[in-house]
Amino acid sequence: MKFNHLNISTTKLYRIISLVVFNILEVVNSFFYKILFEDENSISNKDTLKYWKDRIFYIVSVAVITCGGAIMFCVSYKVYSRGDTVHAIVEVLIYIIITIVITRKHLSVRVRKIFLTQVLYFRSILFLITTGLIGSGIICVLFSLILTICLLEKKLALRVIIVNIIILIILTILLIYGYLDGIYMGKYKIEWFMNVMHNQACTIILIFLMNTLYKGLENQAQVIKRSKELLKESEIKYKAIIENISDIVLIVNADGKLKYNSINLQERLSWVSPDICNIPLWENLYSEDQNNVKEEFQALIEVDGLKKTMETRYLDKAGMVCYMEITAVNLIKDPNINGILLNYHDTTQRKMREAKIIHLSYHDSLTGLYNHSFFETAKKKLDTESQLPLSVITGDINGLKIINDSLGNVEGDKLLVTIAKILDGSCSKEDIVARIAGGRFNILLPKTSREVADEILRKIMVACEAYNKKTLCDLYNISISLGNATKTSTNEFLDSILKNAEDYMYNRKLLEDKSFHSSIISSMRSALFEKSQETEEHAQRLVKLTRSVGQAIALTNQQFDELELFSTLHDIGKIGTDNQILNKPSKLTNTEWVEMKKHSEVGYRIAMSSSELMPIAEYILAHHERFDGKGYPQGLAGEDIPLLSRILGVADSYDAMTEDRVYRKGMPKEDAINEIIKNSGTQFDPRIAKIFIKILTNKESGYNV
């Protein structure tokens, strides 16, 4: 036990002594760095040749200051003891000068290197001369030359070598001719030449060796430098990529706990727990997905190099369910990773786009109801015994075309959306309500009897009536013709059931459509007259004027009926004209006039959509044509213009000239007649114009001016 105790004590003592020595060396090292270099980090780059030259300079300088001091003291004391005081003083001065110069930090390191190498070289030459070949002078010369190669640049070192050769040649000549016989070196004339030759040969060989070594070091330093530059560039590039990509890179251990994360973690995944480093990764995910991700993760760590991709969900800060794709690779055995490498890719936006695409592929973009494609799919899916009785309701909006033609597609779309909301609101979530095309709608009612389907149909009709009472639309009431049928047996074909519902719907439409169109036309006529009191009075005057012309040219009864209807509704297209244009007190601009001229075509489309107005559709379209072909919209000329349109053209112009307008006073009737005469054959049919003027000037007609 004592031995063990002694052993432990000795070990502790050794550690303490080692620590003390290490600390002393650190202090000494730091001290010499401070006195030799401006900055302690000035020779920190080990990948350059300059580092090694500066390092050698540091070592030699420390050796000169420390060991050189001890040698100087010994030599000085010895020569002083022999009575050579001058020599002792010179030794001390040389040491002091060397120490002062090499520790002057304001001098560049290069200058101090040159000074140090040259002082040591000439000190070695002096030592050689005074001690001869027996002393270590020749060795000191060789050492100083090697040191010169180590510390100085190639060109400068080469100059020193040349100077050395010249000095040795001079010494050899002096020795041969006896000029050095009086000194100690003079005793070795015979041996001198051989030693000097060997010394210089060794010096040259060492120079080549050192040069080769330095070239290798320099090349290696350049390679290392370039490699570091490339590595740094690569690090910067990959750092920039990691910082700016939307994905998050993580490394977790076998327990799923975080070891490394890209710096964009908090930016991209602000919803993660602040304690993410201490909990498994799956605990940050959506609760319903945690077990699945954990199982996939555990299966992953069992196979080295295995790669898995998982889709999972998470809750963001707002509590909304979002989506993410996790790609995981088992790199536990890879010494550079030593864990599971994960890539988090947020797929929320992609999922939303996919959901939108799927929604658009199965839904009508205008009404939001299912489309024809989805209806066909649902029809096949629900056509099973478990869904019996399976009822269908089919419907078609009444008057959609006339509303589109007269009021525009915006109003027609509004009608479609309104009907769609009523249909959807009258059915349950299990029912399939779909817009098939245009104003056609189909409804699938699984597990719904005929009686319940009849009740739903009545519910829709009541909802339409309630809407009409609530909105009190002046132009039209919403209306849809409906039909229904029910499949009660697997022996029946669903397409046949749907055909029965369509037949029922079309039968109802025949009854409802005509009265609905008449209702719309009547509503439009009333709305048109309410837009401007002048318009209604204008129509009444035109009926009277055109009838007089018709009587003069002996029109048929059918033509009289058409002429009266035409005179009343020729401007029905103005129902779609902006009120501000229609009642503008000043002259219309070019743009407004283009808009105003559209009412002929709008009126034509309205008339063509109604069987009642269809006979006068062409007259409405042509009632602003001119006899010379300069009218609108088709540019018809002469008798290509329908007769009734030519009659109305004269009467309409006369009434427009003689009646007051919001932007001008009406002209006298005589002036109006003169205008008609003036434009006869250009704007007006000359035969009709002549008859019209005759009627106006005939006292018996009641139009005597």
From TrEMBL:
Keyword terms of this UniProt record: Coiled coil, Hydrolase, Membrane, Transmembrane, Transmembrane helix
GO MF term set: cyclic-guanylate-specific phosphodiesterase activity
Record keyword Transmembrane helix present: yes
Pfam entry (one): GGDEF
Coiled coil: 214-244
Span of domain PAS: 234-304
Signal peptide: none
Alphabetical list of InterPro entries matching this protein: GGDEF_dom, HD/PDEase_dom, HD_GYP_dom, MASE11, Nucleotide_cyclase, PAS, PAS-like_dom_sf, Rev_trsase/Diguanyl_cyclase
Keyword Chloroplast tagged: no
EC number: 3.1.4.52
Transmembrane regions listed in the UniProt entry: 13-36, 56-80, 86-104, 125-149, 161-180, 192-214
Domain GGDEF: 388-524
Annotated ranges, domain HD-GYP: 513-705
PANTHER family named among the record's database cross-references: CYCLIC DI-GMP PHOSPHODIESTERASE PA4108, CYCLIC DI-GMP PHOSPHODIESTERASE PA4108-RELATED
Name recorded for this polypeptide: Cyclic di-GMP phosphodiesterase response regulator RpfG
Gene: rpfG_1
